[in-house]
Design goal:
CATH class of the domain at 39-245: Alpha Beta
Oligomer: single chain
Distance between the termini: 34 Å
Strand content: 5-15%
Order of helices and strands: HEEHEEHEHEHEHHEHEEEHHHHH
Shape: globular
Strand order of the largest sheet: 6-5-4-7-8-10-9
Structural class: alpha/beta
Largest sheet: 7 strands, mixed
Number of strands: 11
CATH topology of the domain at 39-245: Rossmann fold
Number of helices: 13
């Protein structure tokens, strides 16, 4: 099997920033070097780019299944691209309620994916052709040994993803994950993922690192996106639409909410701070953190540039660029490009968790449009 050599210094590079004329920071994704490394590798050249600004997001007859759906960032992106959602699977109860409320047209299985049998999957899907299976299986326990060992529980969820793909035999597979998955165990996990999907009939699977800000998200958020198909064709990826010079800024997305009082009906809630805590937050400068021990949370955002990666970190989300409070759940949802009528179930803390773990909808929509563009060509040949 071929090997892509990983430059670990590139993989561990930190976010680069420089001062702009307006006093804000120009932030660059920490994975830009790894992205270039994979894009330029001859063994990962089974891909091409599609200008996804051209295809109109019309309703289609293409169906998809979303595994490990979370609150539905991927699902919403594919739906916005005209796909029909048939099935989603998620174990978390609050995220499942969010899915059911926002996607009432599809079947949702709440529980362990391993409890959804092959026969039940076929019963749910019926005679529908599944054109895409997408999802982001948790990777915390990945090991090469486990991927090869059917009795190793550490990689069970990834193997369940492959099992569902084997049952449904979709035209395309789209798997997203953190970019770090490409460097785990010196790239061996990445190689094994390709091998597993190759055995399932997707021999030419490719991977690229996509930056959500290049598709209009007002935050820097990078994802490793695997795409494979059953036809031996090259894999479509969306063409970048924004450069660092015209990234959408955090304030362009949420400035209208900064003076709005808390409104639980639209998830516009945030952690209530004591007067003493507000005084401490007031001293945090843009780019600084309230706590030295929290590297990726409680950080004051810069105005005029995209947000740092939006996520929930044990209740600690980013600090507003002007207000002496953390950003609200709805503001966080705006950074993830969820529309305001997409309401998250559960408590405020659980809404934060769902939103912070989601795929930005605009990124998902562009991935889906790129795939749809090629599927329409395949449909014409039938």
């Amino acid at each position: 099997m071929y090997t892509i050599v990983i430059n670990r210094n590139m993989a561990n590079a930190t976010t680069t920033k420089k001062l702009n004329g307006n006093g804000t920071k120009d932030a660059i994704s920490r994975y830009s070097n790894v992205k270039a490394q994979f894009d330029d590798n001859l063994f990962n050249n089974h891909w091409f780019e599609v200008d996804t600004r051209k295809p109109k997001p019309k309703k289609t007859n293409f169906n998809f299944v979303d595994l490990f759906s979370g609150a539905g960032g991927l699902s919403l992106g594919f739906k916005q691209a005209g796909f029909n959602k048939v099935l989603s699977i998620e174990i978390d109860d609050d995220a499942s309620e969010t899915i059911r409320n926002n996607f009432p047209e599809s079947y949702h299985f709440e529980g362990k994916i391993e409890d959804l049998t092959d026969d039940k999957i076929r019963e749910i899907v019926g005679d529908k052709t599944i054109h895409v299976v997408c999802g982001g299986p948790p990777c915390q326990g990945f090991s090469v040994a486990g991927l090869r060992n059917p009795h190793d529980p550490r990689n069970q969820l990834f193997k369940e993803f492959v099992r569902v793909v084997n049952v449904l035999k979709p035209w395309y597979v789209v798997l997203e994950n953190v970019p770090g998955i490409l460097t785990m165990q010196d790239g061996q996990v990445y190689q094994e993922i390709l091998r597993q999907f190759g055995l399932a009939g997707y021999q030419n699977m490719s991977v690229r690192i996509l930056e959500a800000a290049t598709f209009g998200a007002p935050q820097l958020r990078t994802r490793a996106v695997f795409v494979g198909n059953r036809f031996g064709n090259e894999n479509p990826y969306p063409q970048e639409q924004y450069s660092r010079e015209n990234y959408k800024s955090i304030d362009s997305a949420i400035d209208d909410l900064k003076n709005l009082p808390p409104d639980p009906s639209i998830n516009h809630e945030w952690t209530r701070h004591s007067k003493k805590m507000e005084e401490r937050i007031a001293k945090v400068p843009p780019g600084g953190s309230l706590y030295d021990t929290f590297r990726d949370a409680w950080k004051r955002q810069y105005k005029g540039v995209p947000s740092m990666t939006a996520k929930e970190n044990h209740g600690g989300v980013h600090i507003h660029y002007e207000k002496n409070r953390v950003i609200s759940a709805r503001e966080l949802a705006r950074l993830q490009t969820f529309p305001d009528d997409f309401i998250f179930a559960g408590t405020m803390k659980r809404a934060y968790w769902q939103i912070g773990n989601a795929v930005p909808c605009v990124l998902a929509r562009n991935i889906a449009l790129a795939v749809r563009n090629e599927m329409e060509k395949l449909k014409e040949k039938e």
